[in-house]
Design a protein that fits this description.
This protein is α/β, with parallel strands linked by helices. 35% of the residues lie in helices and 13% in strands. The strands form two sheets. The protein has a four-stranded mixed sheet with strand order 1-6-2-5, covered by helices on one side. Strands 3-4 form a two-stranded antiparallel sheet. α3 runs antiparallel to α6.
């Protein structure tokens, strides 16, 4: 029987895999921060970047230790494959594979990484969510040449590993309207009984 071997939580923010000397360029390319948000000095960015790198190294070591057969990555699509013609609150990618960029190959589809999915697990997750009262969408292919969203691709870039099959589970955590807070608390990841039942069903599906 299959088993859940671990859970890793990480940011996919823009600074997490950039050299500290490039942080200010990212800030300048975006809307101004609120006045109360502190801005690091150049000298402060270097040790902060080192702490980020050390944390990612720990996560890489944990992933290697767990040696999973498949990853389920929870993330959000920020106008990458979804748009306001069709923007689901929750979606499971069930296609055989997907492609997506790392931080240096955005907009260059010919250089995208190809990642295998695990469709039996993806379909089972889809069915289990429906059976637990959710109304997820699903995708069998990506909608454009932007590739899979960076919320999924950036962790794979951190791990420097595109060989582990990945089931993307995408939640709208970015644009309104979103799941109400009361309903959001019922997501399997936030409710121990539902979470345990979900992963028990997943293990049964993969055994």
């Amino acid at each position: 029987m299959a088993q859940l071997v671990g859970v890793l939580n990480m940011s996919h923010g823009p600074f997490t895999n950039l050299a500290p000397e490039k942080w200010e360029n990212v800030r300048q390319s975006r809307s101004p921060y609120r006045s109360e948000v502190p801005i690091e000095t150049e000298g402060e960015r270097v040790p902060q970047a080192a702490r980020i790198r050390a944390g990612l190294d720990v996560m890489n070591a944990k992933l290697e230790e767990m040696h999973p057969d498949v990853l389920v990555i929870f993330g959000d699509d920020q106008l990458e494959n979804f748009d306001f013609n069709n923007y689901p609150s929750l979606s499971v990618y069930v296609g055989d594979e997907f492609k997506g960029p790392d931080n240096s190959t955005r907009g260059k589809p010919e250089e995208y990484h190809t990642v295998k999915n695990y469709p039996p697990l993806a379909v089972h997750l889809l069915r289990t969510l429906i059976q637990n009262g959710f109304d997820p969408a699903f995708q069998m292919a990506l909608q454009n040449d932007k590739g899979m969203c960076h919320a999924v691709m950036r962790p794979l870039e951190f791990f420097n590993n595109y060989d582990i099959p990945v089931v993307p589970l995408l939640a709208n955590g970015y644009y309104p309207p979103q799941l109400p807070a009361k309903r959001n608390r019922l997501l399997p990841s936030r409710h121990p009984r539902r979470r345990n039942r979900l992963w028990r069903d997943v293990a049964h599906a993969r055994s």
